Amino acid sequence: MKERDHEAGGILLGRRIVDSENVIVDQVGEPSSSDVQARFRFMRSKLPAQRLVDEAWASSNGTLNYLGEWHSHPEDHPIPSTVDLENWRQIALRVVFEHDFLVFIIIGRVSVRAWEVERQHVAIRQLVLISV
């Protein structure tokens, strides 16, 4: 992310590893033309994202699921804002999803950080990212 870039974001699609709490992100959605992107704000449009989820589910015979969301922050080491935290809680309460948790990733200028939001308690905890 460059100095003056707008925030961006999208959804995460993938699968949970059987008999584990680990997930694999297979597909990362890109911003749509109807998303709101500004220097310090990103608001995802629901309809294009839902279309992407529905298409992935259908084309994968029900193996690709909605795992969560990602967005960028114009800071080196991203920290979720109060708006981010409330949005994540609302998503965990409203959205239909297969697992007991959702993953939210924020991409900073230097590091990438992830958080897990539990369905039942809407508890939020930071995760350690493993990439291959």
From TrEMBL:
BP terms from Gene Ontology: proteolysis
InterPro entries: JAB_dom_prok
Pfam families: Prok-JAB (PF14464)
SUPFAM superfamilies xref list: JAB1/MPN domain
JAB domain boundaries: 4-116
The entry's keywords: Hydrolase, Metal-binding, Metalloprotease, Protease, Zinc
UniProt-recorded Gene Ontology molecular function terms: metal ion binding; metallopeptidase activity
The keyword Metal-binding is annotated on this UniProt entry: yes
Protein name (Swiss-Prot/TrEMBL): JAB domain-containing protein
Species, as recorded: Corallococcus carmarthensis
